[in-house]
Amino acid sequence: MEEAIEAGKFLLVTAAVVLNDEGQVLLTQRAGDGPLAGKWEFPGGKVEQGETLIKGLHREITEELEIEIEEPRPFLMVDHKYPQFHVRLVSFLARSKSEKLRLNAHKNSKRVSISKLCAVDLADADIPIATALQDRYCLSIKEKRGN
After folding, report:
1. Higher pLDDT among residues 142 and 120, named by residue
2. For residue 43, what is the DSSP state?
3. pLDDT at 9 over 90
4. What percent helix, strand, coil does the chain show, rounded to 5?
5. What is the rounded distance in angstroms from the CA atom of residue 79 to the CA atom of residue 129?
6. How far is CA 113 from the centre of its chain?
7. Please, is 72 exposed, middle or buried when counting C-beta atoms within 10 Å of its C-beta (0-12, 13-18, 19+)?
8. C-alpha gyration radius of the chain
9. How many domains does the chain have?
């Protein structure tokens, strides 16, 4: 990571795990022709200089989707090295004030049940978040069943 920072190839990024009442998560599909084009991800983006993680998360979600998220709570931090850069992805569990959104930076969006997240073609850095969500979801179901 230190090498990536020195080379200017380190990105601090936030992601919102936007859950709805049906237990579905919002995913967005990257547009463009970069190395992650077409991959699905939890929406969010780069934190700007002097910005807190929460402020960066709110700004990115507002800019990219034109929605407001409520009460983001820290979930999981992932460090991942792509060939072109190193990313630290800090995810937050959140709810949206509205189900309506507008895609300003992505090709597509969809809601996916937590149990089917890992069947989606996610960006590599987002996979540990999906796995942790599934682990938490399965544990919650087991607890409810009394297993």
Report:
1. 120
2. S
3. no
4. 30, 35, 30
5. 11
6. 15
7. buried
8. 15
9. 1
Here the tokens at position 28 are 């967005």
CA dihedral sign of residues 84, 72, 42, 58: negative
The CATH number for 71's domain is 3.90.79.10
pLDDT at residue 84 is higher than 50? yes
Q: What is the 3-state secondary structure (H, E, C) of 45-74?
A: EECCCCCCHHHHHHHHHHHHHCCCEEEEEE
pTM of the predicted protein model: 0.87
Q: What percent of the chain has pLDDT over 90?
A: 71
8 Å CB contact between 9 and 85: yes
Which residue range forms the structural domain that includes residue 102?
2-145
CA 95 to chain centre: 13
- Work out the average pLDDT over 106-128: 95
d(CA 19, CA 70): 11
Q: Are 56 and 48 in contact (CB under 8 A)?
A: yes
> H or E segment at 34?
none
